[in-house]
Amino acid sequence: MNQPSQTSSQRGAADASQPASRFTAYMINHAQVFISSLGKLYRAPLSNLMTIAVIGIALAFPMGMMVLLQNMQTVSGGWNGATQISLFTKLNINDERAAKVGQRLRLMPEIESLHVLSREEAMHEFRSLSGFGEALDVLESNPLPAVLIIRPTTFHSTPAQVALLVEKLRSLPEIDIAQLDLQWVKRLYTMMEIGERGILVIAALLALAVLLTIGNTIRLDIQSRRDEIVIVKLIGATNAFIRRPFLYTGFWYGLLGGVFSWLMIEISLGLLAGPVEQLAGLYGSSFTLTSMNLLNTLILITCSLALGLCGSWIAVSRHLHEIEPA
Amino acid sequence: MISFQNLFKRYPGGHDALSDICFDLDDGEMAFLTGHSGAGKSTLLKIISLIEKPTRGQALLNNVNLARVSRRRIPFMRRNIGIIFQDHQLLFDRTVFDNVALPLIIAGYRHQEVGSRVRAALDKVGLLGKEKQNPITLSGGEQQRVGIARAVVNKPPLLLADEPTGNLDPELSWEIMQLFESFNQVGVSVMIASHDIELIKKMDHRVLCLSHGQLSEKTAQELGE
User: How many domains does chain A contain in total?
Assistant: First the structure.
């Protein structure tokens, strides 16, 4: 009888019809288990589909929210500039005087750039962006003042410096209102940040749920195959050999759960796309809902796979060594 | 092949299953292990098949000290032992062919090699036509022969059988024993635990007799006296 540690090499030399080399055998077994574990899922379609659906739904929720949030960020991206101050001139100031004021202000060291929006241009912009364009047609004269749009230098963009600058500009005789456009962008961003945090927390909790679902499913699978495990251990199966089908089952749960969740997100976004486009149209915007991009899809599938493998690994390492022949 | 020196096995709780066991089983030798139930036959087989570890003394399998085999190496040691169980221990969720192929799959044989070896083993036990059936559709004797085919399919140098004829009528039991004898004739060491005295007498091989954990050697003729 050969020494166990030398089994494969000695036998291999003695007889060509002996086990394949350890590496080949390993790869062959992986390939076999890869296919057979999928076949096992296929043979019990209903219960496995339910497990996959649970995983899919749990992952679709945070990922779908994330995609919606990303869409919101592209909408607000138009204002994603640096701090901006809008100076609304008094109504009796005509475009020429407004331009002169602009020239004077450009010389101030605090100001990086300045753009003068004439009354006519302001009217035009309001008509195209606000969605209340028709309301203007009723009016006989242009009710909008000229606007000076100012970007402070980076140095003067800190909240304290900007506040000082705004005070200074507000005191100019030609200026009616000086408005810092930073505030609401800041608020929106903070809200979105909170949203993002919230989604991450929910994602973490649901990921844990997926992990437990897969772990529990695999644990039940291990228990129902207890006798089989004892038998194959008695005829020389290594722990890795026994572990493999369960890990591949976890892999398939993860992969199929990820695909299921991708499908659910795509369908949900498809259902939302029409109404969102309509709403955007009402605001005069050509915004359309973008669905999952490649990166998001990759993240989703990778996370799902990782959860599947981790869940089954935890179940297998916790329960497999308890089963020994006796 | 097997060598036990002053081996003791005490189970937790203080029950001495085996005490001061000394025996050798040579390469290619065939022996029966007999004794009343609870005499320690199963414990002895469990020590050889690395299910239990001896409490004291030495158990060598092919010059490897069984007490010192690490968990990681146990599977590889077991591949050199064909084990046959009283209750067959077949898997009923797969065919006869797949049951017999299992040790080869575990050892990593190539696909074509698995097919020819499984058919050779099934031919040897007279079940060649039944490879596609589920073992549950077979009779007790046939199931036992599937178990034997699985034990010999990777040509282990040692066969251990625990009451292989326990549930079979005398005629079938005799056929099964003939089968073991034929493996022995091609050089396989065989050790069969059985309490079927009549059968053992007919076979005329070495007999190890366990009684209350102690071992004595007898000839087939001395049995039952």
Answer: 2
Architecture of domain B2-222: 3-Layer(aba) Sandwich (3.40)
Q: DSSP alpha helices (H): ranges in chain B?
A: 41-48, 74-78, 96-107, 111-124, 140-152, 170-185, 197-203
Q: Which residues contact A103 (CB under 8 A, 6 or more apart)?
A: none
Look up the domain containing A253 and give its range: 20-77+187-319
Contact A66, A161 (CB under 8 A): no
A32, A235, A242, A323: which to substitute to probe chain B, counting the most B Cβ within 10 Å? A235
CB contact under 8 A, B89 and A22: no
A43-72 pLDDT tens trace: 888 989 999 999 999 999 999 998 988 888
CB spacing of A236 vs B75 below 8 angstroms? yes
Residue of A24, A234, A236 with shortest CB distance to B76: A236
> Of the candidates B90, B66, B86, B96, which has an alpha carbon nearest to the alpha carbon of residue B78?
B66
Of A2, A32, A326, which has the smallest distance from its Cβ to B51's Cβ?
Answer: A326
Cα gap A220→B170, rounded to integer Å: 42
Same domain for A214 and A287? yes
Which of A158, A180, A202 is the last residue in one of the domains? A180
Which residues of chain B approach chain A closer than 8 Å at the C-beta?
1, 49, 51, 62, 64, 72-73, 75-80, 83, 89, 91, 93, 102-111, 113, 117, 150-151, 157-158
Same domain flag for A250 and A152: no
Is A280 within a domain? yes
* Global confidence as pTM: 0.73
Residue A109's CATH number = 3.30.70.3040
Confirm whether A314 is domain-assigned: yes
Amino acid at A240: A
Distance from CA of B216 to the nearest CA of A (A): 26
Task: Compute the nearest-CA separation of B225 from chain A (Å).
Answer: 34
**Nearest residue in A to B88, CA atom:** A231
**What does the pLDDT look like over B85-123, one tens digit per residue?**
888 889 998 899 999 999 998 888 888 889 999 999 999
The CA angle A205-A315-A51, to the nearest 5 degrees, is 60
Q: Do B51 and A324 touch (CB under 8 A)?
A: yes
Last residue of a domain, one of A180, A203, A224: A180
The interface predicted TM-score (ipTM) is 0.89
Q: Could you give the CA distance from residue B156 to residue B81 in angstroms, rounded to a whole number? A: 5
Question: A107-137: string of b/e by CB count within 10 Å (b at 16+)?
Answer: eeebbbebebbbbeebbeebbeeeeeeeeee
Whether A176 and A202 map to the same domain: the answer is no
Pair (A88, A56) in one structural domain: no
The per-residue b/e assignment along B46-76, b for 16 or more CB within 10 angstroms, e otherwise, is bbbbbbbebbebebebbebebbebeeeebbb
If we measure between CA atoms, which residue out of A171, A128, A124 comes closest to residue A147? A124
CB B2 within 8 A of CB B31: no
